[in-house]
Write a structure and sequence with these properties.
The protein has about 220 residues and is an alpha/beta fold. Helix content is about 45%, strand content about 10%. The chain folds into 2 domains: about 140 residues, Rossmann fold (3-Layer(aba) Sandwich); about 60 residues. The protein has a 6-stranded parallel beta sheet with strand order 3-2-1-4-5-6, with helices on both faces. The protein is globular and about 55 Å long. GO terms for molecular function: phosphoglycolate phosphatase activity.
């Protein structure tokens, strides 16, 4: 990039938040209640998509059950999500990036209700200049949520960066030529993420923190 990055847009689940295990468990619980087969691998593979797209991918034969399955999933997730927290180092990374003058945003497959709940839970509402949830726009990998964030912030795609753990995140950014960074500690493999030509694939939050500081033109050690 010719100029330092001004805006960093983060995915939530599997990138900032250690919630993948609970999402998988809640999807499998909901599927079981409606006698629908669902492996952990299949449940994990769709993390990052909007909930309607999740239902279409996982339960294509029973569209009449989608609303009930998703409600069951949501109820189970909220009731059992006591352990979903920031990955180690995320809170410190976000604070350091914000204090360095970078603008931060979130683009997530969560619903607005779900995103607002975890923003409140982590007391991080004021860290993000803009947030988009799949329930209020197009699901990844369509780039509309990124385009809306860019329009709101007045920043061009080439001066922003998308950070995510799934192919959906990186493909979404690739669709509008936005620089992108993968993380390999979430859902998708390094091999899968590499298909979308990320600038870097970080294997830890510490490595991600260091890379983002460098991309912003900062040399501070983490």
């Amino acid at each position: 990039m010719n100029k330092p990055v001004e805006l960093i847009i983060f995915d939530w689940d599997g990138t900032l938040f250690d919630s993948v295990g609970q999402i998988v468990a809640s999807l499998q619980f909901a599927a079981q209640q409606f006698e629908q087969p669902l492996t952990a691998a299949d449940a994990k593979s769709i993390i990052g998509l909007g909930l309607p797209e999740v239902a279409q991918r996982l339960f294509p034969r029973v569209p009449e059950l989608h609303a009930d399955i998703l409600q069951c999933y949501a109820d189970h997730y909220v009731a059992h999500s006591k352990g979903d927290i920031w990955f180690d180092g995320v809170a410190e990374m976000l604070l350091a990036l914000s204090e360095a003058g970078l603008k931060l945003a979130v683009a997530t497959g969560k619903s607005r209700k779900g995103l607002d709940r975890v923003l409140k839970q982590t007391e991080s509402q004021n860290l993000f200049i803009s947030t988009r949830a799949a329930s209020e726009t197009r699901s990844k990998p369509h780039p509309l949520m990124l385009q809306e964030i860019l329009a709101e912030t007045g920043i061009r795609a080439e001066q922003a960066m998308m950070v995510g753990d799934t192919s959906y995140d990186l493909e979404m950014a690739q669709n509008i030529a936005m620089p992108r960074v993968g993380v390999s500690y979430g859902v998708h493999s390094i091999e899968t993420l590499s298909h979308y030509q990320p600038l870097h694939i970080a294997d830890s939050v510490t490595a991600l923190h260091q890379f983002l500081l460098q991309q912003a033109g900062l040399r501070q050690a983490v």
